[in-house]
Amino acid sequence: MEFPSKLIENAVGELSRLPGIGRKTALRLALHLLKAEMDTTASLAEALAKMRFEITYCKTCHSISDSEECGICANKLRDHSLVCVVSDVRDVIAIENTGQYKGVYHVLGGVISPIEGIGPSDLHIDSLVERAAAEDSEVREVILAISPTMEGDTTAFYLSRRLRDLPNVHISTIARGIPMGGELEYADEITLGRSIVDRLRQAR
Description:
InterPro entries: DNA_Rcmb_RecR (IPR000093), Rcmb_RecR (IPR023627), Rcmb_RecR_Znf (IPR015967), TOPRIM_dom (IPR006171), TOPRIM_RecR (IPR034137). By secondary structure, the protein is an alpha/beta fold.
C-alpha cells in the first residue's frame, strides 16, 4: 500500500496493530482523524495517553480502577459476602450490564493454560484464597464465573480445590446457560443474567 505521507504511513502502521483493525480500516481511521477538528484528534490522543499511564488496578479485586480501590469494592451497598470470580475485566463489564448481580468481584487476570505457559502462580489466585480465608473476611460464597472452555474448566477445578476446605465458604458456578466453548463477553445479557441468578452450588 502506497502512502502520500510518511506520517500517514506511520499512523496507519500503529493503528493496524490494534486487534481487529486491518490496514484499510486503519487508513480510513487515520484519514478521518486528519480531516477532523484539531481538538477532536488532540482529545483522543490525550484520553488514550491518560488511560495508559494513569489507570491502576484495585488492590482488592484486581479490576481496572481510577484509584487504589475500585468503585464496586468501595460501594457499601454491594453484598461483600458474595464474590464473583472472573478471568478478565471484560467479564465484569458483561455481568454488570445484566443488572442482576449485586455482589463484588475478583479478577484472575486470565485462565490456566499450560500451552501458553500460564500457570496458577501467574494469576491472582493466592490473593483470592487469602481474601476468603482472612479472619475478618465477609466472604460466604464464591461464584466461579469463568468461561466454559477447556482452560476455563481447568481453572475452575483448580480454584475449587484451593477453596473447598475453607469453613463457611460455599463454592458455586454459574449455570450452563453459556454455550460450551463460548466467551462471557459475547453472551447476551438475558442468558448471562439468568446464569448468575440460577448458579449451582458444587458438592464438596
